[in-house]
Amino acid sequence: MAIANKIAGYISRSSWIRKMFEEGERLRQEFGAENVYDFTLGNPDVEPPKEFHKALQQLAKKPLPGMHRYMNNAGYSETRTAIARKLAEDSGLQVTAEHLIMTCGAGGGLNVVLKTILNPGEEVIILAPYFVEYKFYIDNHGGVPVEAWTNRETFRLDLDAIAAAITNKTRAIIINSPNNPTGVIYNEEELSGLGELVKRAQIRTGHQVYVISDEPYSRVAYDGIKVPSIFKLIESSVVVTSHSKDLALPGERIGYLAVNPQMPTALQFIEGAVFCNRTLGFVNAPALMQRLVAGLQDVFVDISDYQSKRDLFLENLNRLGFSMVKPDGAFYLFPKSPIADDVEFVKLAQKHHILLVPGSGFGAPGYFRIAYCVNRKMIERSIPAWEQLAVEVGLRK
Ligand SMILES: Cc1ncc(COP(=O)(O)O)c(C=O)c1O
To answer: CATH homologous superfamily for 5-48+302-392?
Structure first.
């Protein structure tokens, strides 16, 4: 075997993803891209805000001396100061530049955090349905993922299920709000409850247990809902986020991680994270992007556009008999599969040229995910196909 057995195993177990992708490509070639309704990817279809392009042009016109050189592995202090100001405003706490480091997106940031805190064999609790990469990220750093379910009807935090999953080896709990794939935003009460639970776990295990709050969708929230600041509610917390979604820059790999300034070991944590950012080979987050996002902390893409696509989809799918939680944020719907086997359902949908991801891909068989960060016209064009699909699975006559 030319590659590690473990990696070969991961690839073969996820081969259905590749098959789905290939089938989508085949459908596009045979029927034309406009007749295939692809809701598989969380890749924003919108362009970054005009302020981003303006700042980019200005920097290109007037390059700063040394702007492409290596830097402090934590990132430019001007960028970290701008972000710290925002975090301080949201949390009411004294967050400063020394409490955060710039990372290669949230994905890079999560790897840095896990590398920084995990001893071999320590456990990280993930909450189903979950972003599938968590399992691989945890494994990257010798950790063991432990699954606990959120409430199966509402997808809200199930504190009893989390408590039952905590052992002496628990090192961290990853939460993601607004959630991919459910769109749920955890409220202050749930998060305070989690904070209490973590405090008790720390006393019981005698070591620090972290809540890692993965928040790349924190500014993609609808109906005026504000995503609570985790720092205010959970002392042992680390925020990991990016500008992949709020500024529509996923290809630019720019994000940050921040530690709760109330944590007595906050600066030791950051020292570890800076070391890991370097030795994981990220070295530092992209220099040009750091310069640009420093001035864009109050700017984001048009959220109302996503909200109206959510409403369009919800209205039509509810009318057709599909059942799902109304998402408060992010840009996904996670309906129940009308037939028991979600992979079978996704295959049936393909027959109608609708491309979806089965819930099994999120540790949640029996559901499917729709990503609606797509062109509105594609959603509109897909409605007759959804109608036929609803008839085929017996939701309507
Ligand atoms: C829940 C969640 N976490 C992390 C990421 C990674 O985001 P980034 O592009 O910032 O690495 C994604 C991307 O889709 C996501 O959905």
So the answer is: Aspartate Aminotransferase, domain 1 (3.90.1150.10)
